[in-house]
Amino acid sequence: MAMKFICDTERCIACYGCVVACKEGHHLPIGVNRRRVVIVNEGKPGEKSISIACMHCSDAPCMAVCPTKCIYKREDGIVLHDKTKCIGCGYCLMACPFGAPQFPKSGPFGARGVMDKCTFCAGGPAPTFSEQEKQLYGQNRIAEGKVPLCAGMCSTKALLAGDSEVISEIYTQRVAKRGAANL
Amino acid sequence: MNKKIFLGLLFIIGALADTAFAQTAPAKAYLIDIWYGFYNAIVGDWAKNAPLFIEYVTKMKPVYLLVVIGVPSVFLLHYLIIGPKKFSHEGEQILYYDVFARIIHWLAALFFSLLVFTGLIIIFANVFGGGSFVKFCRYVHLISAFGFGITVVPMFLMWLKDMLPAPYDIKWFLILGGYLSKKKRPIPAGKYNAGQKMWFWLATLGGGFMLFTGFYIYLFNTSLETLRLYTLLHMLLGIAIVALFFTHIYMSMIAIKGALWSMITGYKSADEVSILHSKYYEKLKKKA
């Protein structure tokens, strides 16, 4: 089992609902966006958009380069990190292909604070539903049995989140229904 | 005839209309083009040097471990097998370091030691458990860098002339500074030997390069591609600096008995200078 996101670019309308839901739902500070929307051919024919966050890689490069070894992978494939161990060195950002790690500029001398990234709404290593977990990582919707906020509120259901086998099946069916016209 | 011209005109108009239509019609967006668009916007030039960064940053830690354990072990062996050099500290004294040089040296030494130790703590962050202690070391690393940046400039200027390479430095390297034997033969060296010169250039110019790359690594105010390169170079040069830092400490505090006092009082004994800095001693004798 591996938890993944899929963004259906035929359905995404760049409403930024996922970005706002994530930011508000987890009370993220200014300058930290766990999720972002990327638009290509903006204002031109063939405009398309996609919603991007941590992709919870199966072989996450951030885990390999972290000097504190604070990034880990859960059994269900969700990549999480321990904010009490993170030192904000930024190696994970240099290693990440998707620009997922975020750094608030809150430390002394404009220093980067500890890293923040998408948790798949699964909290962190702190005790589940504890005040500390909420403060550091935001909501733990996976433990509540809910899908991540971004996918849950996506108005066109372009953003799918869940077990990779299940959501890829949904996406395959959609592509089959649409037919080859859109390829 | 008119009919032919009319038909020809029709063709031309048709062709013009066709090109005009082709220009305004929506361009067919193929899935692969959209994919490339997304790839360029999200992943960008990650593939250019990030795989290299990931591969080598993970390989640096064992290399640092090797240096931190290996270099002192080699010196321990040297101490046990060959032993330290002993010189008489009585008799004629030669002024080696004036007050200004000593103050600058110890200030730079303080900041440099802090940089080396906090840097090692950052590299072995998982051993120290990460968190606020290592984060504190990151801030100390930054403040020490400012201190070192200020003191390295006068240090560079005051020793530059004596640290320029000389032909007898090659001979010094060939006999490894005479540290492999206990015999007291004059060793070819000027006011500073080739080993000290190597350390000087690494600490000043290398240190300057560390300050430059470190500035960007701290502030992240350049492209990620450049940052990856700077981080790798910062860590690579750090290996050499840590190795020579330990060497400097061993040589000054243990390998030559009482050598440390020359940086405190400013004087070296004529006995020591005539052996370890023979060329400089000859020059002094000629002058006198």
From TrEMBL, chain A:
CDD domains, from UniProt?
A: DMSOR_beta_like
Keyword set, alphabetical order:
4Fe-4S, Iron, Iron-sulfur, Metal-binding
Segments traversing the membrane: none
Q: Establish whether keyword Ribosomal protein is in the entry.
A: no
A GO molecular-function descriptor: metal ion binding
Domain of life according to the entry: Bacteria
Q: Specify the species.
A: Thermodesulfatator autotrophicus
Under the heading InterPro entries, the entry gives: 4Fe4S_Fe-S-bd (IPR017896), 4Fe4S_Fe_S_CS (IPR017900), ET_IronSulfur_Cluster-Binding (IPR050954)
Q: Which residues form the 4Fe-4S ferredoxin-type domain?
A: 3-33, 43-76, 77-106
**What is this protein's record name?**
Formate dehydrogenase
Matches recorded under Gene3D superfamilies: 3.30.70.20
From TrEMBL, chain B:
The record's SUPFAM superfamilies line, in alphabetical order, gives: Transmembrane di-heme cytochromes (SSF81342)
Where in the cell does this protein reside? Cell membrane
Ranges annotated as spanning the membrane = 63-82, 103-127, 139-160, 199-220, 232-256
GO cellular component terms given for this protein: formate dehydrogenase complex; plasma membrane
Cite the GO molecular-function annotations of the record.
electron transfer activity; formate dehydrogenase (NAD+) activity; formate dehydrogenase (quinone) activity; metal ion binding
Q: Where is the signal peptide?
A: 1-22
Which keywords does this Swiss-Prot/TrEMBL entry list?
Cell membrane, Electron transport, Heme, Iron, Membrane, Metal-binding, Signal, Transmembrane, Transmembrane helix, Transport
User: Record's PANTHER family?
Assistant: FORMATE DEHYDROGENASE GAMMA SUBUNIT (PTHR30074:SF6), FORMATE DEHYDROGENASE, NITRATE-INDUCIBLE, CYTOCHROME B556 FDN SUBUNIT (PTHR30074)
* Record NCBIfam families: formate-DH-gamm (TIGR01583)
Name of protein: Formate dehydrogenase
